[in-house]
Specification:
single chain; about 40% helix
Length: about 150
């Protein structure tokens, strides 16, 4: 019985160590001062695109509701990822993230170079003339670039 009790205590101890709590820096994220994150999607590789989407899902799990704003700035070859004819499951993940108010911002310069129009892309994409300039301006406004390496 003593051995069983010790085993149970050990399991509980290790389980508590696995459940790490997030320590938020001051000022803590809030509705009035949310964390503002940008991610750059500039490659069309499906694994890279899904890695970015997975990272966003993970962030949404950590931050309390309404304390996080995420914008995915899409330019160059990454514009292929938000086209209607891209991988169906990936597009479903993107549209799901949009329901959580994740912004997807597309680059008009890339579209013009590739002779694409807004009709070629999924709905609810915001557009800017230059994706790279959007990254620069958001960073200047205090947004943090959290694009994962892959």
């Amino acid at each position: 019985m003593k051995r069983l009790l010790m085993l149970l205590m050990g399991v509980l101890f290790f389980a508590s160590m696995l459940e790490a709590k997030m320590e938020f820096a001051d000022p803590r994220p809030s509705f009035d001062q949310p964390r503002k994150i940008i991610m750059k999607l500039n490659r069309s590789d499906i694994h890279y695109a899904n890695h970015i989407l997975g990272t966003i899902y993970n962030l949404l799990k950590i931050y309390p509701s309404d304390t996080l704003k995420v914008a995915v700035i899409v330019y160059g070859p990454g514009m292929r990822v938000i086209k209607k004819d891209y991988d169906k499951k990936t597009l479903e993940r993107i549209q799901s993230l949009m329901e959580y108010e994740v912004e997807f911002v597309g680059c008009i310069n890339t579209m013009e170079t590739m002779k694409w129009t807004k009709k070629d892309f999924i709905d609810d994409i915001e557009y800017v003339q230059a994706g790279v300039a959007a990254v620069i301006e958001r960073q200047a406004a205090g947004w943090i670039d959290a694009t994962p390496y892959y």
